[in-house]
Design brief:
This protein is α/β, with parallel strands linked by helices. It has a domain of 182 residues: Rossmann fold (3-Layer(aba) Sandwich), CATH 3.40.50.300. The protein has 9 helices and 14 strands. The protein has a 6-stranded mixed β-sheet with strand order 7-10-11-4-12-13, sandwiched between helices. The radius of gyration is 20 Å and the shape is globular. The relative contact order is 0.20.
């Protein structure tokens, strides 16, 4: 069996030092570990995400991507290490804590209700109301109007009044992204947003990610699709067996190198 190749990170940095090189990180993880009994799912994970930065997170199944996402999102408390948001230490006991701090997760199933309109999904859990005497009624007109504004900002053709069940995969992604815009999220973690949709819809979703970035929102794109990561991300982080094995600018890497890092054929120096 041939020996694994070795590759250096940009500027000769190792994986750990590259993570802390951003001058003003929005989110910073230092020495994050997570164990489930004897199983070590994360081991010494360092990661920094800058404001309005799009970072690709890649790795094979079991690499630790899902566990890392759930630690950031408040589903799991880390066993070791520290999380800092805008320079201040934070500890999330539940996903609502992370959402209140400005961190949203878009899971692959999007968590949207197919029987509701786009606007109703955008405002799900944050509905607007109006008073009518002693009654408190949903203000559908105001929600439709604001949702339509969000879709225009995203340059999406999604219509606020349309029912989600009638929408394409790209339009459903627009609904989920509009929901993060309504919440004024600082960081959005997107779990495989381009899986199982058409080529045209993939292009739409990548444009939506760029619009999030341009509006000042940081994005972590968790994906197995190499072309998507190289099309929209400024940096790629590769995980293997619970550890980070590379963290470097997209311009300083290649799909072949990332594939080698994922499989272990290339070992980062």
């Amino acid at each position: 069996m041939p020996h694994a190749m070795r590759t250096e990170l940009a500027g000769g940095q190792n994986a750990e030092s590259a993570a802390l090189s951003h001058p003003n990180p929005l989110l910073e993880l230092s020495g994050i570990g997570k164990s489930f009994g004897a199983v070590r799912a994360l081991d010494g994970m360092d990661l920094a995400i800058g404001p309005a930065e799009v970072v690709g997170l890649m790795g094979d199944n079991g690499a630790g991507k899902s566990t890392l996402t759930k630690v950031i999102a408040g589903n799991f408390r880390p066993s070791q290490g520290e999380i800092r948001l805008e320079g201040a230490p934070v500890a999330f006991d539940r996903p609502a804590d992370a959402r209140n701090a400005g961190i949203e997760v878009m899971y692959q199933d999007l968590a949207i209700a197919e029987n509701l309109t786009a606007a109703a999904n955008v405002f799900l859990g944050r509905e607007l109301h109006r008073r009518f005497g002693p009654l408190r009624l949903l203000d559908h007109r105001a929600m439709n109007r604001r949702a339509a504004e969000l879709f225009r900002e995203l340059k999406s053709e999604t219509r606020a009044e349309d029912t989600v069940r009638e929408m394409s995969g790209g339009q459903r992604q627009a609904v989920a992204i509009a929901r993060t815009r309504l919440a004024k999220s600082k960081l959005v973690l997107m779990d495989e947003p381009t899986a199982a949709i058409s080529v045209r819809q993939v292009a739409e979703v990548l444009d939506l990610i760029r619009r999030l970035r341009d509006s000042g929102t940081a994005v972590v794109l968790i994906s197995h699709r190499m072309p998507d990561v190289f099309a929209v991300c400024g940096r790629v982080v590769v995980m293997r067996r619970g550890r980070k094995v590379a963290d470097k600018p997209i311009a300083a890497s290649s799909p072949e190198e990332v594939t080698g890092l994922i499989t272990g054929a290339i070992v980062a120096a």
